[in-house]
Amino acid sequence: MLALLIGLLVALGPLLRGGWDLWSQSLLFLAVAAGFSCWLVGRLLVGYLPLPSKRMLAWAGALAVLSAASALMSPVSAYAVPSWRALALGLWIFPALETVSKDERAAVDQAIRAAAWVLVLLAFYQHFHDRMSRPPATFLNQNVFAGTILMLLPLALQKNDWLLCAGLLAALMWAHSVGAWLGLGGALILARRGAGPIASRLGAGIGLVCLVLIYGKLQDPEVIHRWHWWTAAWRMLSERPWLGFGPGSFAYVMPSFQQPGRDLSSLYAHQYFLETGAESGLPYLVLFTAGVLHLLHRGGEHKRFGAAALLIQSCWDYALSIPANFWLFCYFAASSGSQSSRGVNISPGRKLPYSALVLALSYSVCSWASSRWRADRIKSEAAERFRSGAPAVAVLPDLERSAALAPDPEAERDIAELALQNRDFAEAARHLERAAVLNPFRASTWAALERVDLQLGRAEAARRARAQGALYCPALRLP
Hints:
Blueprint: H1 2-15, H2 22-46, E1 48-50, H3 54-72, H4 77-97, H5 102-128, H6 142-158, H7 162-175, H8 178-190, H9 192-195, H10 197-216, H11 221-239, H12 250-253, H13 272-280, H14 282-297, H15 301-313, H16 323-334, E2 343-345, H17 348-387, H18 392-405, H19 409-421, H20 425-438, H21 443-455, H22 459-472
Antiparallel strand pairs: 1-2
């Protein structure tokens, strides 16, 4: 059962657009949460519950607690808490895999290999049929696909699937990702003991070519933009070093940490370590990095190679920030551990109470996860109806229902805009205030609230709105 659930994440995740969409994240989270609870109940009723090692359980548990605290205490928790689910799934893989046998791990590897074939065939179809010079396969970005290839390539090599290796290399060349090739070269250098001096020299050659290409792009916008994103991430980390701004918060908080006059929006920092520190805090970053490096140091050559290559690429690109790549990376890193022999016997009198507790917790977790998915679906359907010509009065109840299911600053802003169309300034002000609380780093929300307060003749409230917004948004401090 656990092997099947892990396989869902690491094999199906890349095929679902990398698990980037809320619906795919929610679907996989619900499947894993429900399946894991069924496995727990089954083991409890049998009377024996296998456990991971104490060290692994303590490490993964500490990371889960730190990241959860970061999400809950985030100033943009409406975004951070849903993003935490994808992070929690990756952390869950580490202790879960220690209870999976060697044969079951081999089955997971075969599932990943099958997913790799689907990605390669799709990339070839896009390249030759759709005339795409840089096919992204199922992903939104070619550099993200290149990061996935870095992990799939050594696995195909381990299985002696030379045709798959050739297809992956072709897709990697089509991706034109300098960061991915730099990761490949760096991994070849690090793997010199297992791969030999030829691989080390090849890696040095690839790395040298990549560095020359990067040097030639130093004045290009993509390099300059990366520098500004890294600077913003460092400022975010310096502002909240202990817990950060919450998982998935970079895109929403970054505008407040850019240099005045710049508007370089980005979902990711294009530097995984800076981004992780800015979002989850320095303690999480240090603990996660130290644990992963320890696991990779004693891991198998092929999976260690793929994980190391992705880590190097993620110093330049955001491939590791995509959920499916993160889950696959966690699986590769966790594969270095052997099956745990720990377990605990469950007395007959405790089987039913413990099982009932697990089912109750599972129901609560699944209800919480599905509420955000339902809210987003209702909001999307309402927006589509409004674009199709439906009157605001018909769309408004759906938006209000969406906002009631899950806190969402975008839904609150949409409701405020519809209220403004109906000249209901008081209602618009109320929802703009709610949107500003849920996401105080969006300057346009505070500016809109200021204008609505002035329309209502509340000059003092308008002044307070601008002053409060200026605490989060430097643009509002300009005269």
